[in-house]
Amino acid sequence: MFNIPDFNKMEMTFAEAEGILKIDGSILRGMEHINEHWERYCAGEAGDRYETDEEFFDVWSHEANAYNIVYTTMKPLFV
Predict the structure, then answer these.
(1) Which of 41, 59, 66, 78 could cross-link to 17 by cystine, CB 3.0-4.6 Å?
(2) Distance between CA 12 and CA 7 in Å, rounded?
(3) Counted domains in the chain
(4) What DSSP character marks residue 24?
(5) What pLDDT does residue 47 have?
(6) Residue 20 falls within a domain, yes or no?
């Protein structure tokens, strides 16, 4: 899950989150995609694009919130 700053947090339904994340019909692929962007940012591989977490979430807020909704909803299935 992403620790999203309060300013970038948003409410959405699971269906909205699914629509935001799906890549070629796959929610998992969309989750992997946003996670890869986060990992590149954390590793310093995003260049000068984002200097702070807040700047990252300004660009990826919809996707990160959608990720958290899907993760939270699906997590009980894997416990």
Answers:
(1) 66
(2) 15
(3) 1
(4) T
(5) 78
(6) yes
| Cα–Cα separations (whole angstroms), residue 59 to 22, 25, 77 | 18, 23, 30
In angstroms, rounded to a whole number, what is the distance separating the alpha carbons of residues 52 and 58? 10
Q: Which helix (H) or strand (E) holds 50?
A: none
Q: Tokens 């899907």 belong to which residue?
A: 70
Residue 5 domain flag? no
User: Is 44 in a helix, a strand, or coil?
Assistant: coil
| Tokens read off for 37 | 């962007």
- 33: domain range? 10-78
Residue 4 inside a domain? The answer is no
Structure tokens at 40: 């590149």
The answer to the question of residue 17 being in a domain is yes
Q: Report which residue type is found at 75.
A: K
Q: CA-based Rg of the chain, rounded to a whole angstrom?
A: 13
